[in-house]
Amino acid sequence: MVPAWSEAFATEARNGLAREGPFGRLDRDEVFAGADGAGVVVAVVDSGVDADHPGVRGRVVRRLRVDADRDDAVVVEDPNATDLVGHGTACAGIIAGIAPASELVSIRVLGADNRGKGRAVAAAVEWAIDQGVGVVNLSLSSRSEAMFSVFHDLADR
């Protein structure tokens, strides 16, 4: 027996959702013209990345975490860091599927409760910018009005 929320994703229901878009069916080569992410470094700022997961194995080149206290946030190497929640690994898997030759940098900013501090996210993004990382994935949000301008400035950078 499966939970009620999963019924919409059952095979019978999924088949009824299949639609062909205005361009017909596009394959990967048509969409990406052979690009595979080679030479691109992507920072996954999230709950960490499980570097041993089959979807990302061999692509995680660095693992870091942000230590944040009341006044400061510092990015530190953490070669043993893993994903505390699973969300960062899911994001990394999507990235690896789209850009299989890209390199991934995991920057853990969220704790086991899937929560973090805005200044930790800002420190992670600033670190990535300073390191010349080409793409920063942020699949998270903030309600902090105090961090609003900081995040906008980082996005502009």
List the helices and strands and how they pair.
Blueprint: H1 11-17, H2 28-32, E1 41-46, E2 60-68, E3 73-77, H3 87-98, E4 103-108, H4 118-130, E5 135-138, H5 148-156
Parallel strand pairs: 1-4, 1-5, 2-4
Antiparallel strand pairs: 2-3
Describe this entry's structure for a reader.
By secondary structure, this protein is of the alpha/beta class. It has five helices and five strands; from the N terminus they run H-H-E-E-E-H-E-H-E-H. The chain has a five-stranded mixed β-sheet. A hairpin with a 4-residue loop joins strand 2 (60-68) and strand 3 (73-77). It is globular, with a radius of gyration of 18 Å. The mean pLDDT is 88.
